[in-house]
Design brief:
By secondary structure, the chain is α/β, with parallel strands linked by helices. It has ten helices and 16 strands. It has three domains: 99 residues, DNA Primase, Chain A; 85 residues, Alpha-Beta Complex (DNA primase DNAg catalytic core, N-terminal domain), CATH 3.90.980; 106 residues, 3-Layer(aba) Sandwich (Dna Topoisomerase Vi A Subunit, Chain: A, domain 2). Helix 3 packs across helix 4.
Length: 338
């Protein structure tokens, strides 16, 4: 006898974080978002890039590496190597999820599929502060580390962005990158590995501030609420360049294009899109310059869908596997006629 499923109700009741953990995903929560390596068995994008993003509150996900996206039920179907567009297959997966996580919705699990109910994690009742300004600055950073000069960055650029190699603490053996919110207040540091060969799931390319507790208050960092280098643009301008990563911001600035901001990854939140629009005059232009890969294409498409209703947008396409940092000053001038 088939179990009747109200898919809409089931999606609203499922805890996406529990479903991710059920499939062996180590959830790295920052607010309502999880970012990490794509767990989908059919993932065909980069293996060492945290391209998978899940909104745990809305129950949706997207991988900017392989292009997969959908809701929590479709995610489970893909994890089971089923076609989420196949109604029968999706129903089967939905029944199993309902039996395991939401038995109160109806349908009793068979003896072989029955599983002890998981204890609901207690709701966080402590006060939460997001992107709270730091009351300290990292000292003793090595601004002359060969990683920075080896990538062609001048001492002036390094000093302008406050960069330096960190030899201790959470950012040990990484280049520390100061992060300022929209008002210019220091809200954290990102850390970039200096040897890409060491990148792994446990040692990502970039490390951002984690959740911490002090005196009964939780402090969270959310990069989706501001733009890297955005605080330096004080009033709306005619032309704004938007790119993915930190190094591209440094490189464009160094080569005479200082009106550039970064989203700090191959994703753009609605809040970041709002900020981009606010930094550009109504008749101004937004220049999108993503990396030359599949994730970059999806990044550009997302930005265009969010920004083009409000501002003129131009997509500056790079050759395959190229980044803005691969372009010379002359090549940048040709692509950005500003």
């Amino acid at each position: 006898m088939n179990t009747w499923i109200d898919f809409k109700e089931l999606r609203s009741k499922l805890d996406f974080e529990q479903v991710l953990r059920h499939y062996g995903v180590e959830v790295k929560r920052k607010g309502n978002q999880h970012h990490g390596y794509c767990p989908l068995p059919n993932h065909n994008g980069k293996k060492n890039s945290p391209s998978f993003s899940a909104n745990l509150e809305r129950g949706i996900f997207q991988c900017f590496g392989c292009g997969a996206k959908g809701n929590v039920l479709e995610f489970a179907a893909m994890m089971e190597k089923a076609d989420p567009k196949d109604g029968t297959a999706l129903h089967k997966v939905a029944v199993e999820l309902q039996q395991r996580f939401c038995p109160e919705l109806g349908g009793k699990p068979s003896a072989e599929k029955a599983a002890p109910p998981k204890k609901a994690e207690p709701k966080e009742e402590r006060p939460v502060m997001v992107n709270q300004p730091l009351d300290f600055e990292l000292k003793g950073l090595d601004a002359e580390h060969p990683y920075l000069s080896g990538r062609g960055f001048t001492s002036e650029t390094i000093r302008h962005f406050g960069l330096g190699f960190c030899s201790r603490g959470m950012l040990k053996d990484r280049v520390a990158i100061p992060l300022h919110d929209n008002e210019g207040k220091l809200v954290g540091y990102a850390g970039r590995v200096i040897d890409d060969a060491l990148i792994s799931e446990d040692n990502p390319r970039y490390r951002f501030p984690g959740k911490r507790e002090r005196d009964g208050t939780l402090y969270e960092f959310r990069k989706t609420l501001f733009l890297y280098n955005g605080f330096r643009i004080k009033t709306p301008i005619d032309d704004l360049i938007v790119i993915e990563g930190f190094a591209s911001v440094w490189w464009l600035h160094q080569n005479g294009l200082p009106s550039v901001v970064g989203t700090m990854g191959s994703d753009c939140s609605e809040r970041q899109a709002e900020l981009i629009v606010s930094l550009v005059k109504p008749n101004g232009r937004v220049w999108i310059a993503p990396d030359g890969d599949k994730a970059g294409e999806r990044y550009a498409q997302t930005l265009m869908s969010l920004i083009s209703p409000h501002r003129f947008v131009r997509w500056v396409k790079l050759d395959e596997n190229k980044q803005p940092t691969d372009l010379s000053a002359e090549q940048l001038k040709i692509r950005f006629i500003i």
